[in-house]
Protein 1
Amino acid sequence: GQNIDQPTEMTATEGAIVQINCTYQTSGFNGLFWYQQHAGEAPTFLSYNVLDGLEEKGRFSSFLSRSKGYSYLLLKELQMKDSASYLCAVPSYNTDKLIFGTGTRLQVFP
Amino acid sequence: GAVVSQHPSRVICKSGTSVKIECRSLDFQATTMFWYRQFPKQSLMLMATSNEGSKATYEQGVEKDKFLINHASLTLSTLTVTSAHPEDSSFYICSARTGLTDTQYFGPGTRLTVL
């Protein structure tokens, strides 16, 4: 089967760094996605990791360890607009679907 | 690139009417499109997967006769909520992917309110 775990909620301060963790169990691995979803809006694609290591994209970086079934999303220099839900997702092993975690709701305070 | 549009963005209708939502991939050909529903403060729930030119595959518990999906071309899929009722009020989101990667690109969503 496939399962994704991520914390439900996190809080952080403007200007700080926050790390959102995601662990997954999957029958076959074909990459891991991170999406950002602001309240009342649709998700937007942030990153896709298929190889181990850290991929940096501006203030956001995503890390993957396939052997540990673990990923994290690192947000630097937090801004108020980063308050959103962050969804971790992996492709389903034998279908076209993405399996989403429940999302981590991040609140950034001044 | 990878822009997906949805229309309408918001719709209010009376109970018993049908509502059609369009999902278009604007700058790529989408071999597969997905329809999700999301209630306030809840997770995305996949309703169905549709491949161009074939019947949609519905998730367990989703009534295919109530939620009609048509994927007539590589850039357009439609979801029709038939005989809508207040409990169908929700945020409906489509996504699209090419056949090359698993990345799904989401439309902006359609907020349906059934009175």
Protein 2
Amino acid sequence: KAGVTQTPRYLIKTRGQQVTLSCSPISGHRSVSWYQQTPGQGLQFLFEYFSETQRNKGNFPGRFSGRQFSNSRSEMNVSTLELGDSALYLCASSLERVNTGELFFGEGSRLTVL
Amino acid sequence: GENVEQHPSTLSVQEGDSAVIKCTYSDSASNYFPWYKQELGKGPQLIIDIRSNVGEKKDQRIAVTLNKTAKHFSLHITETQPEDSAVYFCAPRGTGTALIFGKGTTLSVSS
């Protein structure tokens, strides 16, 4: 069974640009959640999508957004990039809602903002 | 808001020793208590979890103990091996709308 796939794995952007990251969950999983990981702040929850609807949202500005498609694949977008957005962005999929069981993480997309 | 604290932040042990990492949480409604292991360059992976109706769970060299009254749970690794070197995260789950992870514990096992 294929795991969670995130693309791209690495990318470099400049301040002010926008970026879109993609996540393909494990087949059959309906929930996709996104996380930002930095050395200073650790793992921080961005949002969760379940059945194409955003269910939960962490404490991030509106520049961070996402969506989920009917096949459960998800994208997250960051607009007007800032230097502080440099981080590893992880997505995780799960069978049901994130507060009910195991999360399966992808290997992440490492974003560098110059 | 909900608070999750994980200690210690770094832990160095000799191969064969035991390691214990503690996670303290504030949400009394928490009912699911997982531990994740993140190796360099990879995403976190669940290594063990426990639900609120159980006090302890063991899987070979790893175990998790839960004290709901004191609102903490701990990861125990016995007979540590170099491949146990990684960052470990707790992520107690409740009914809140946001997932909160501990800050992580970097475990180094030297041979």
